Amino acid sequence: MKTLRGLFLLLLAVFSVSCIPHKDTLYFVNKSMALDSLQVVKEMQKPYRVQINDILTIRVKALDQDNVRILNPIDSPNLNMTSGEKSYYDGFTVDAHGNIRMPTLGTINVLGYTTEEIEKLLETKLLSEQFKATANIFVTVKLAGMRFTVMGEVGSPGTKTLFQEQVNIFEAIANSGEIPVTGNKKEVLIVRQYPQGQKVHHIDLNDTAVMQSPFYYIQPNDIIYVKPLRQKTWGTGETFMQNVATVATLLSLVTTSILLFNRL
């Protein structure tokens, strides 16, 4: 009986350690204030500055559209082409030197510029070299979708592209199949591209303070990695009842083995 009691206590200890705490499965946990307090969270979003390998979609409009036709992409006859594929073929890719090449305008450096700054740059260049102010030149520059990669403990890992101006980390995760119970929401890594190379940043999705982080909004070509919790490597159940069933099965197996051994 002492052996069974000791074994039961051991299994109980393993069970308690292997359980995934409920608080670790949540988002937006207020760790700094009372749970019922009113929070005013300021989202920190700086204007995105164009990096190498970004793809820009550029449209030029004028009173006489025929005069700017060469600057605009031609509609593809391939109706099966996706929006991402059209952007790849019709957009302007920022090369390793931070330049794009446009018809009649030649090579233009856009590295480190915002899309608004590129619009003004192109308008000024067109008006000074090819058109008069009466042409009413109007330029729009956008990123050809927000492309990012999600890896690790998510329902649908892979590279995604969302066609919107800005995407926060929760939207990126939601579009990647959500984080399962075995995913570590407290330590999510973001690998971000900078002119001098790549850097790894850590964010805690379990804390509401993440919305004040400079990494709350993702950037094009970000790599998001969700680590697994230690409980996954232990092979225990994900829920309370699964752990109960595991302990009960192990206890039954060991008890049966002991009883059979004692009969010999």
Description:
With about 260 residues, the protein is of the alpha+beta class. It folds into 2 domains: about 110 residues, Outer membrane lipoprotein wza domain like (Outer membrane lipoprotein wza fold like), CATH 3.10.560; about 90 residues, wza like domain (wza like fold). About 30% of the residues lie in helices and about 25% in strands. The chain has 6 helices and 10 strands; from the N terminus they run αβαβββαβββαβββαα. The strands form 3 sheets. Strands 7-6-10-8-9 form a 5-stranded mixed β-sheet. Strands 2-1-5 form a 3-stranded antiparallel β-sheet, with helices on both faces. The chain has a two-stranded antiparallel ribbon with strand order 3-4. A hairpin with a 5-residue loop joins strand 6 and strand 7. Helix 1 runs antiparallel to helix 6. The protein is elongated and about 100 Å long. It starts with a helix and ends with a helix. The model has no long low-confidence stretch (mean pLDDT about 80). Pfam families: Poly_export, SLBB_2. It comes from Mangrovimonas yunxiaonensis. InterPro entries: Poly_export, Poly_export_N, SLBB_dom. One of its GO terms (molecular function) is polysaccharide transmembrane transporter activity. Belongs to the BexD/CtrA/VexA family.
